[in-house]
Amino acid sequence: MNESANFYVWFTLTFLAAGLVKGVTGMGLPTVAMGLLGTVMPPAAAAAILVIPSFVTNVWQLLSGPATARLLRRLWPMMLAIVLGTVGGAALLVRVDPLWSAFSLGVALIVYALYALLGPALSVSARAEPWLSPVIGVVTGAITGATGVFVMPAVPYLQALGLDKDELVQALGLSFTVSTIALAAGLMVHGAFQLNQLGVSTLAIVPALIGMWAGQKIRARISPKRFKQCFLVFLAVLGLELASRPFF
User: Fold this and answer.
1) Is the dihedral angle over the CA atoms 14, 19, 21, 27 positive or is it negative?
2) pLDDT beyond 80 at 12
3) In the chain, domain spans
4) Residue (of 104, 90, 42) closest to 191 by Cα position
5) To bridge 173 with a disulfide, which of 36, 62, 68, 103 should be the other Cys (CB 3.0-4.6 Å)?
6) Transmembrane region positions (predicted)?
7) How confident is the model over 146-201, as pLDDT tens digits?
8) Alpha-carbon distances of 181 from 55, 83, 120, 153, rounded to whole Å
9) Whole-structure pTM over 0.85, yes or no?
């Protein structure tokens, strides 16, 4: 099998796996896809491929309930800050040596996995939210721009806002959608996203949606909590592999 065929096999399996995780847990597609694609290409190239499937699946998630407008009114300062932080942070993803970009991605995966496995449940007061939301947005954006991973610290922050289950799913969809658009804009500003990459990115929609469908079927049969634990251990191991690259 030639190199091109090997890439497309890995590409298909990556988005099947990423969609599967998202179907079971409601999140994780960009994280898994960046981690797996980052093992065979520079993170900036992986992030560019991720744009279309991430956008499609997250818009679907955002529009899955009735709270979209309410969440936009509540969370717009955080979303604006994510855009600003991501567009600025994307310079690091583009300009830094790919080995060190992979190192940053690996560290982000390890931190997220360890927090989700071991971290305490947090709560944000109504008084703190107006000033804390933009801070979380800027930090999330900077990490997104530098690594292509959307989750930290946006996910634990949104989980701490006291949203009900359906609102939380939509809020995550909103955050990930904005992060996807901002990452695409940041890559374009810094010359790392070309229109001809849209074709490959669009191809990823099919395995991603098949994976999501399969994940939703699996979710009805197994404990999402146990699956999430296995997923997080996998991310930590993947993060260790990426983070070790500059040293071996």
Assistant:
1) positive
2) yes
3) 1-245
4) 90
5) 62
6) 7-24, 44-63, 75-94, 100-119, 131-156, 168-188, 195-214
7) 888 888 889 889 988 988 877 888 898 899 999 999 998 998 888 777 766 778 88
8) 7, 8, 31, 18
9) no
Distance of CA 17 to the CA centre of its chain: 14
For the chain, how many residues are written?
248
Q: Tokens 């997250």 map to which residue?
A: 58
pLDDT at 1 over 60: no
Instruction: Estimate to the nearest angstrom the gap between the alpha carbon of 207 and the chain centroid.
Output: 17
User: Tokens at residue 101, please?
Assistant: 């970009």
Say if CB 87 and CB 185 are below 8 A apart: yes
Positive or negative: CA dihedral 155, 239, 108, 14: negative
Q: Within 10 Å of residue 241's Cβ, how many Cβ atoms?
A: 15
Residue partners of 12: CB distance under 8 A and separation at least 6: 207
Q: What's the rounded Cα separation, in Å, for the pair 235 and 32?
A: 7
Query: Are 15 and 53 a contacting pair, CB within 8 Å?
Result: yes
Q: What is the mean pLDDT of the chain?
A: 86
The whole-angstrom separation of Cα 86 and Cα 81 is 8
Q: What is the CA radius of gyration of the chain?
A: 17
